[in-house]
Fold this protein.
Amino acid sequence: MTRNGPVALIFHTAVVIFMLAPLAIVCLVAFTPENTLSLPTNGFSLRWFDAVFHHPDFVQSFWNSLWLAVLSATLAVVLAVPASLAITRWEFPGRGFLNALFLSPLIIPHLVLGVAMLRLFAIVGATGSFGWLVAAHIVIVTPYVMRLLIAAISGFDRSVEQAAFSLGASEATVFRRVTLPMILPGVTGGWLIAFINSFDELTMSIFITSPSTVTLPVRMYMYATESIDPMMAAVSALIIGITAVAVLLLDRVYGLDRILVGQH
């Protein structure tokens, strides 16, 4: 086993500190009793968390983001599973184009996607529709699901499926009892990454939300243009906490190495 030298350890430590320091500062500011963005030097307070839960616009936007992320991630998985199986296992005309099409939102700026979606929704008369907002989020989160699923399916031992077929199992039974359980870590990891990306999406959403479908990131942006106070830090701390809990649960259930790296 190769050991990291002192220079590599110092560099890695510096990178970790650089990434985590802003998050730690935001979480600390959320507990300040003051009316300005400042560290809690005079004790800790939950007043700004209480203010968030008693702010109807933030509460409604939270539920909008939650339902949007759940629906987008779930439908993205439903779409990505058969697409990944087809792209990985079969050769057919347009296979490369289909793969590039599904993954293209990863390289297209969300600003461009937002303007394009806004124009599209205006043409079809769907401006302000929650269903079309879900469709737009599906477009941008599906690539994350597909990348994990393609990796999971590529490393899948098909001899297990062939054994099930030889015993008389139907294709539906093999998929439900063999294939799906084997790629379940990729499905779960893809769903969680899609959920997080949909929940945190701002750049595209700001173009296509209506007053009744404003998401939490858009609400935070709107609030920040009017006033800057520790309530923003409290909302950010809650989002960080929810994301951290979700990742920890996923790590305990399946293991991040198994999902993201492919280790068994």
About this structure: Residues 56-89 form the longest helix (34 residues).
